[in-house]
Each structure stands twice: as structure tokens, then as C-alpha cells.
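RRM domain-containing protein, pasting as requested.
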Amino acid sequence: MDILSISSTTTHTHHHTSPFSPSSPLLPPKFQTTLTFSAKSSSESDIQPNPPRFSSNVRRPKPLKTTTSTTPTKSIPLPTPNPKKTSVNPLRNLVNPPKAHRNPDDLTNKLWLTSRISPPPPPPPPPPLQEAVSVVKETTRKSKVKVSDAKSDTIREFRQEGKIFVGNLPTWIKKNEVAEFFRQFGPIKDVILIKGHEDPERNVGYGFIIYGGATSANSAMKSVEFDGVEFHGRVLTVKLDDGRRLKTRSDDRDRWLAGSDEVEYRSNWHQERESSRNDFRKVLETEPENWQSVVRSFERIKKPSRREFGLMVNYYARRGDAHRAREVFERMRARGIEPTSHVYTSLIHAYAVARDMEEALSCVRKMKVEGIELNIVTYSVVIGGFAKIGNAEAADKWFKEAKGTHETLNAIIYGNIIYAHCQACNMDRAEDLVREMEEEGIDAPIDIYHTMMDGYTNISNEEKCLVVFKRLEECGFTPSIISYGCLINLLTKMGKVTKALEVSKKMESNGIKHNMKTYSMLINGFLKLSDWANAFAIFEDVVKAGLKPDAVLYNNVIRAFCGMGNMDRAIRTVEEMQKQRLRPTSRTFMPIIHRFAKLGEMRRALDIFDMMRRSGCIPNVHTFNALIVGLVEKHQMDKAVAIIDEMLLAGVTPNEHTYTKIMHGYASLGDTGKAFEYFTKMKNEGLELDVFSYQALLKACCKAGRMQSALAVTREMSSKNIPRNTFVYNILIDGWARRGDVWEAADLMQQMKQDGVFPDIHTYTSFINACSKAGDMLRATKTIKEMEAIGVKPNLKTYTTLINGWARAAHPEKALTCFKDMKSSGWKPDKAVYHCLITSLLSRATFTEEYIYSGILSISREMVELGLTVDMGTAVHWSRCLRKIERSGGELTEALQKSFPPAWNSSENLEITNHEDDDNVDDDGDDSDANYSDEDEIEEKESDICGNKPHDRSDDHRLWF
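C-alpha cells follow.
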């Protein structure tokens, strides 16, 4: 059994001496016996599943059937005419083996080197005539046995210790079931099942079991004793492996190395099948982008094997088509082909690319149930899938499991886990993993350097990103387009476009040309700085370089046109995209819709919305939010709410941004009831209530003067652990400022500092507004000095608030001084500043000195030079003030009337003005309660002093870019 087979039935018994000593490595020391050879086993088809092919002209010797001998003999016995058949397990007869004689000739003939160094002794004298016949027969028998021995020795070289053959297995059986049964004899290293073969004459339904550990040989011997056991309705054949399968594979490999790779096809069906398989692999290598050709070539294979199914699953996995990958996988299992670890890994890769990690984990659990071991590639694919969806915690969990399962890891799995932590901005953990990888002796490839640079870009750490780039060069790597692209991306995100241009020039000097991604990064950098000219200059460089603009580049150009207000050119760019057969996306139309909405041209915004639908782009929630932004800014709340109804009809669910923008619209109108209504609707729909939602609600309460309701909102924020930021404090301070309660505003300033929230320019401006409305200009002046001491400089709104405060306090000279300070600080006055200043000076022109007259004249000249024209209400108010100063007109009247609207000179307006003057001017000349429209502009500026508008949710999250 150890060499070819051990037959339990014998017909002729021949005694000969075994060439193996008791210390032979093929058997344990306790099995000392005389082994015999059988020419043909009772189950030769099971033992020899892949027999070697011989030429037809080679004569096969007839080996003799032998059996074990119970008593040693010196002479050759005659054959028995009618041998008795016995059914005894041969291994049980090897427990107490008899002593055997050793034939020195057999050992000498096998040790070729020994036969050359120590030649055999001279032949003995010729035997008598009576023994001549027996000697001739013995010589013939030995020659035949030597041929069989030579053949057996060649096979014996491929015999694997601890490996057994198991025949007559059901074709539906699985590896884990076979391993579970044979594990009772020892630890199993591997299970090989042969369920199908391209040669229909070869047997199927057998397998091999390889035991592992130090007791593998003993485990194999114990399992062989169970030959003939019943297993799932089949009587198994269990024998020691003789190495023939590996010998056949080695011969095939040798023939292939020798240049003979011909395949002997048994029929036209086999030839056509092999040709279609080769065509399929050729299409996969040459035309992977042509999926129709790949599918057609796969369907032409009449009976695909596991290899073809695995290649097809892997092909769909690379495309991210998880549904078709699963379909091919199930088709393979329906044919009775069990998946291997490689096929399962390809399917898991398909789900990972499709970002469906739940299904990927279900495949992993199925592998464990079926007893298929997860290799390093499988763990790497799972970790990479979690890295793509930003779940660093799950990726870390699977990485620890991979470390516990496999002793050594490679650079690919380290690269995936490092990428996961870089995407989650856990750069400390990423650095620890790089250090761990280097300590284990794994050289970091250039991809890990790029991953670390991208991670430092996410946290805007320029210093460490440059350190990694320099280290990349020190380690002998040549920086690629990706290396320079990481640097350009970092610098453009930080607004350092000048440095980014320097990096691009260095890249070009090293012979590396720009691609579309680097050009897009540079254009994005200039767009963030509103530098439209340089953005278009980069686009011209793209055209000069001969690159064909892609959809991303066209989207950036459309953003540039929308930023500079050239909407017609932006629309023509969309049409150019369609001519180039580039499909516009929602990012293409969003800047145009948002720009028209900001400009109040809702009709054109809706036209672009319809154009987007006709182009095949399905509107999403961000598209509808852009329309709502425009309607809210124009205070058209009815139309804004109608957009929500249209969203629901289109199957688009409003999100937090939608309701927050509606709440901001009602807050600007002071409609607290509607704001609370949509706030409650957000709660009922289970949407997230964040600080932006509470900001809108606070703004509505403060605008309506309901400060107690605002305090209740802040208490609810504290109960939900939502911290107050600067914008929340600005809204509250501005609310108390509207009521002129400087004490409450001062308390909020103190509480703000205690909470560790630093006031900004909007906070100080809101507090100055509270002081101005309360008439406490002393505290307002002190606040100006305090903010300048900590490095916060006043802006235009701060100066406007201060000038308005001095005007309210009846100190026009100080208002004029503040106006001069504003101009010296480099701020350009706007219409509201001129209105406050002129009104203040006119109110005191009849009681003050001459310098106020000169101030009015100089300011009026500036307004004329700047082309500023006041509205009719302001002109009427100023005209009444001038009539008190100059009854019959004069220099001041002539100077100020140049800033009046053109309709002022009509006789009708003059009559209306005189009539209003006669009705409204009291005897004491008090006109402080007169109404004029520019007062609304000042009030609007005061409402925006807290700076909430630039920090709405829609602007912070950049929904449309």
C-alpha cells in the first residue's frame, strides 16, 4: 500500500527480501515488515485518478501479485492452484511483522553512486542443472519486479507524508463536512476535492486529505484503518496517497517547459470549448472596457469552469457591478462548482466597490460557515471597503482580526487601514501604523506616502505634508503626478494659490505634464479667491495643452461665469458640454440656478430647472433648496412653501437644510409662529436638530422682540447638549440691542467670555448698537477701545452703528469725527452712512457753528461725485430741514438737491412737498418723528449687524457646490 497498493486477495505467493530497512523514513519504526507489490489493485480507478499515458508500442510488463508472508523461507515456493481469498485489512497484519532477509543486490542497484565506488562481488558459480530452470524463472521474475520497482520509486518521490486518498465521495459534498469527519484522527491541513474534470474518462467524486502537525503520518495511518466506512450513503475508499497525481502534474509541467504545450482533445466539443475559453481570456486582457464583448465571449463557453466563473466575477467586481457579480456567482454554484477563497474574495470586492458592506460581511460569514479560510487579500478588501465609506472603527476591527489570524501582513493591507484613518482625520493612528509597518520590516510603497499626504491635506497641516514629500524623495522615490497633485490640492484648499503655481512649475521643469485633475485643482483655487481672470487663464492652458476638457472642468468654468455674473456665457457652456457628448450633472446646473435665485430672477431660475430635467438630470434635494434660497431672500415665502409641495410630488424628501432655510425666511419677517411650526415639523419627521436650526428659531424670536421665548430656546439647546457658538450669542445680543437693554447685552458678553467663546467683530458691533440705542455712548467708546486692544478692527457696519449712535445722541460733531476716522481706516462710505451723517448735521444746523455747514457741503459733494441718489422720502425729509435753515433757499439747498431723485423737480412733487410741509411742520419745528424710507435701510443694516446672514446653514454647507 505504501508504494502502489496492498491487495487483500492473493493468487500467487512469492517471498522476497524488502529493500527497506526498519528505519526507513516511509514507515514508522514499529511497522517493520516485508512489503509486496500488486500489479493491479481491486480499486485501481480510485487509487490512480490521473494515470500516466504510455505509448502504444511500449510493452508493459506484467507485475506479480504478492502478499505478506507469515513465515520466512529460503526457497521460492511454487504457486498454489486454488488460493483462498481473505478479506483482511492489510495494515492490521503489520502490527507483528516477521523478520525478513535483506537482498544486498537490490540496495546496491538503487544507490547509483555506491555501485560505482564499491562494485558488487563476483557472481557465484553456476548452479546445477536441476536448479537452472528455477534460476531462469527467478531471474525473469526479478527483472519484471525491478521494472515495477523503478516505476514505483519514481512515484514514491512525489508521495506526501500525511496525505491520504478518499474515494467514492458524493459530488455534492462540501469540504467542511469531509474535514469534520476526518478531523477525529488528527489536525487537518488541507482538503482537496475533485468533483469534475475536463476528461470525461477520468474519475470524479474523490479527494485528498492532508494532515498537519508532527503526528501527520500517524493520523494518516489511523484514518486508513477506516477503509470501507459508510459516509452519507457511500462506502468510502481510504488509502495512503501514492503520489501519482503530483507525478502526473510534474510530467505535464516538464512537457510544457520543454516546449510541448499541445493539448490532446478527445472530441470537437473539447476543442471548441478550449478555443472559446482562450478567446474569453484574450478579450479580458485586450478589451476590458468593452463589457458587451466580454459578456458575449463568456456566454460562448459551453461549460465554464471555476476559473472562468472567477474571472467573470472579478471583472464585474472591478466595475462595481455587485448585482451581476452575484448572478455569475450563483450560476457557478448552480452547476455544482463550489467557490474557493479567490472567488469569494472577488464577490466581496464587488460589494466593497459598490459600498455595500452589509452584503460583503454576509459573504464573509458564509465563508466562515463553509470552512473557507479568509486570506490576507480577503481581509484587505474588507478593510478597503470600510475605508471608502469612512468607517475607520470597523476597518480597525477587521485589521486586528487579520493580525490575529495571519502571522505576517503585507504593505497592501497596511495601506488600506492607513487610508481609512487618513480619511477619518485620525493622523496620529495613521502615523502609528506606519511606524508599526516599518518595525515589521515592510517597506512602504509610494502609495502610502501619497495617502499620508492626502490625510495631512484633510487637516490642512502643510508642514507635515511637506515633510512626507521630502521624505519620499530621500527614500529614492521619484515624485509622480500624484505626489505633486497632493501638494497642489493642499495649497489650493488653504488659499495659497501662488505657492501652488510654484509647485506646478517645478513639476513641469521635472518633465511631468499636468493632467485634468491638477488643472481642475488650480482652477478651484482661483475660484475660491474669486479670481476669475486667472481661472480662465488656466482653462486656456488646458486647451493649449491639447487636453479635452471633461465634465469636472466644464463645471468649474460654469462656476466662474456665474461668479462674475456672465450668465449667458454660463448657459452657452452647458450647451457646449452637450455638443461634446458630456452629460451635465446636477453640479453643472446648480451654480446657474443659485445665481438666478440670488439675483431674484426666479423665472430664469425655473427655466434652467426645466432645462436640467430635459437633459436627463433628476432634481435632488439640493436643487430644490437652491430655488428656496432665492425665494426666501426675496421674501416670497408662499412660493418657497410651494416648492416644498413640489418636492414631495417629485418623491424628494425635504431635509434639515430645507426647513432651516424656510425658518430663516419667516424669521426675517418676524413671523415667530410659522418658524415654530416648521421647527416642530422637523422634530416630528425625525430630522436632526442642530445649532443652525436653533439659530433660525432664535432669530425669529429676537426679530419679533420675544426675548423670553428666545431664552426658552437657549435652555432647550442646553438640555440637548448643543453648545452656544458665537452666532447664537450675536443673535441674542442683537435681540436685546433692539430693545435698548444694554444691561442684558452686557451680561451676555460676560457669559460669552466665561463659556470660552471669543467675541468677533459682529459681537462687538451688536453690543455697540445696544449702547447706541440706550444712549450710552460712553460705553460704546470704551467698547471700541477694548476691541482694538485685542486686535479686532472696526468694519463698515461698526462705524455706521457708531455714527448713528452719535446722531441719536445729538452730537453731530462727533459723528463727523467718526466719519473721518472711517475714511482714514480705508473704508468706503455707503448710502446708509451718508444718510445718518446728513440727517444728524441737518438736525443741528440751526444751533451749531459754521463747521457743520462746511461738513454738509463737503458730504453732499462726495455723494454727487459717487453718483448716489436718495429716495423720495429722504428728499422730502431733508427738504423740510432745509426750509428751517434757509427759508428762501441757499447754498445748502442747492448742494443737497443735486442728490435728490430726478422726479423731484416736477411741479407735482413740489406741490406735494409744500403740502406735506404745511401739514407736518409743527409750531416748534420738531420733526423728529417724520417718516422716511431710508430709515428702513438703516434698520435693516442694524438687523444684520450681528452677522447671522453669512453664517446660515445653506452658506456654511455649500449645498450647491
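Note for the archive: The first strand starts at residue 163 and ends at 167.
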